Amino acid sequence: MFSTRKCIKKDCVEHAVTGSKYCFNHIKNPDEFMASTVAMLSDCDGITNFKFCKANISKLKIPCRSILTSKFTGTIFTDVIFDKVEIKLCFFDFCEFHNCRFTSADVRYSVFSGSVFRNCSFDDSEVLHTNFNGVKFTDGGFISCDLYYSSFVSSELQNVLFKDCNLKKVNYITSNRSNVSFKYSNWEEAEFDKGTML
């Protein structure tokens, strides 16, 4: 998996980001570093073992085709497009996603637990065996997605649409749902708390 090299700033407990000896908070020229990182991503088909935690990424269409075994814990994504990107065995835990789009994406065996999603959409995507436990998801949803064996345990879902999705083995136990629609989806094959009325 990814490297666990620490930031070299004295007394810092954070991990260094890929391409630097420092964590994102201690990089001397973060804007310049971001620009060079985006340029690097644009020149490759995919990234593996990439570490980019507690950063701010905005107004970007992810240029690479695959993100594998990488870690983005605590990063804030704003207006980021993940169209046609393959994401496997990645950690996006405790992140924030604002106005982000995942269209025709292939997301598998990844972790988004504890993250916040606001006005985000997953359309025509495979989102398999993926952990959304404890997320706060508002004003967005999933359309024509395969969510097989993904989990939303203890999540807070408000104004979220699961339309025409495969929900087989999806776990919603102890989730709080307000104005959540499962239109045209096989919700009866998902797991809910006993006695749940949809």
From TrEMBL:
Domain of life: Bacteria
A Pfam family: Pentapeptide_4
Coiled-coil portions: none
Protein's recorded name: Pentapeptide repeat-containing protein
Annotated organism of origin: Candidatus Thalassospirochaeta sargassi
Lineage: Bacteria, Pseudomonadati, Spirochaetota, Spirochaetia, Spirochaetales
